[in-house]
Predict the structure of Mitochondrial resolvase Ydc2 catalytic domain-containing protein.
Amino acid sequence: MGKKIISIDVGIKNLAYCIMEITTDNKDPHQFNIHQWGIINILDEKLNNCLTCSNYIGNKICGKIICNSVQLPSGEKIGFCDKIRCQKFMINSYEKKQIKKFKKPTCKNTSLLELATILLNKLNNLKIEVPIDEVVIENQPVLKNPTMKSIQMIIFSFFVQNGIINNDSKINNIILFSARNKLKTYDGPKIDASHLKNKYSQRKFLSVEYTKYFIKNVDKWNVFFNSHKKKDDLADCFLQGLHYLCK
């Protein structure tokens, strides 16, 4: 069996990872084994702790994350979402002075310190089921998105601490991988992406289609991938790992 890697597609909200290996010496891109594949949602716990809309729609509570909170005389706080019927109920039921705007947690309004703390906790809790030899992290441009670069280096530092200088770990290398190489391993029929206007959308589309091509005969991962909402992120980390292992 070949070396095992964890390939990481850096994201502020969704961070995708794929633990995989090539199972032949000739680096055939069709002879791969995926051990783990998934998404780390950095803000899911913050979003889960948000108040949800308390308006009834039919006989059910709406439950959508709120955009306004209302302070009741009892001190209890309730909220309402941006749906027209929920806003209408709120405005008709409560005084203007009771109603406050609520900012839904996003990466932009969450500090880098908090993002780093959440991410490190998530990485610490990630149960890696097989020993990893190398870590491959998507390299980020320094000036284009400084927060993404910071997230990249937080991940890098995590694997230095928990891999390179940890005597109990097999990790012996951390590679910063250029995103432009992800699509180069594809060896299937040409796929037309000209219906998409910009290069970014074309790359994302091709990344998903190329991944479908490689995993079409791997039932477990084919079902997993095609039923997932974040196919583009999963595809990026898979193709990145595949290209690195086959280069």
In short: The first strand starts at residue 5 and ends at 9. The helical segments are 44-48, 84-93, 112-125, 146-164, 199-215, 219-226, 231-246. The mean pLDDT is 93. Residues 193 and 206 are 7 Å apart (CA to CA).
